[in-house]
Design goal:
This protein has five helices and six strands. It is an alpha/beta fold.
């Protein structure tokens, strides 16, 4: 099954790396990008996605605030946080905001497929190293 994914990260290199990984996994039909929370909110108002990969730390509007707003607009969204932060408070904040998963960027190559599969199956996927 091919899915539509929105990658939200302020760093182009991270977005490109994730797109490359998704291409390698052969699971994506369409991949869209947003460089901050505001752009992600606007994109999700116009298009629905099977999965949204959301960075936490971004300028303008962070991933936690963007997740809250996106979930308020459509609670069926499936958001997976992608972050370098291992702070349990960040994980709790993303869960409370509505994220269904949390993947560390330095383990994303090994965990992204599993995180997406579980999230699409309506399970949660929260992992730290």
């Amino acid at each position: 099954m091919l899915i539509n994914i929105l990658i939200v990260d302020d760093k182009l290199m991270i977005r490109e790396g994730i797109k490359y990984l998704l291409h390698d996994l052969k699971i994506t039909n369409d991949t869209y990008e947003a460089c901050d929370g505001f752009q992600a909110i606007e994109i999700t108002k116009k298009k629905s996605f099977d999965i949204i990969l959301m960075d936490i730390s971004m300028p303008n509007l962070d991933g936690i605030s963007a997740t809250k707003e996106i979930m308020k607009n459509n609670s069926n969204n499936k958001i997976i946080a992608i972050s370098m932060h291992t702070d349990k408070n960040d994980i709790k904040k993303m869960q409370k905001a509505g994220a269904k998963g949390y993947v560390l960027k330095d383990t994303i190559a090994n965990t992204l497929q599993n995180a997406i599969d579980k999230t699409l199956s309506k399970e949660e996927f929260f992992i730290l190293k």
